[in-house]
Write a structure and sequence with these properties.
This is Cbb3-type cytochrome oxidase assembly protein CcoS. By secondary structure, this protein is mainly alpha-helical. The protein has one domain. It is built from three helices and no strands.
């Protein structure tokens, strides 16, 4: 019976912490868009190496043109 003096306040503290975390997430609009992050996995990202290569090629052509 004495263990209840520990478990009941501990359960109340954990419940209040979970409720506070949920309230914080709701106030900061963490649940605003629930579909887009799940769909983002299905689409490929642009390859970052291609844009860098194009920029280097443009720079090389500009350097050769100045001669």
């Amino acid at each position: 019976m004495g263990i209840l003096w520990i478990l009941v306040p501990l359960a109340l503290l954990l419940s209040a912490s979970a409720g506070g975390a949920y309230w914080w997430a709701w106030r900061n609009r963490q649940f605003e868009d629930m579909e887009t992050p799940a769909l983002r996995v299905l689409f490929e990202d642009a390859k970052p190496g291609n844009s860098l290569l194009v920029d280097e090629e443009k720079h090389e052509r500009m350097r050769n043109h100045d001669c």
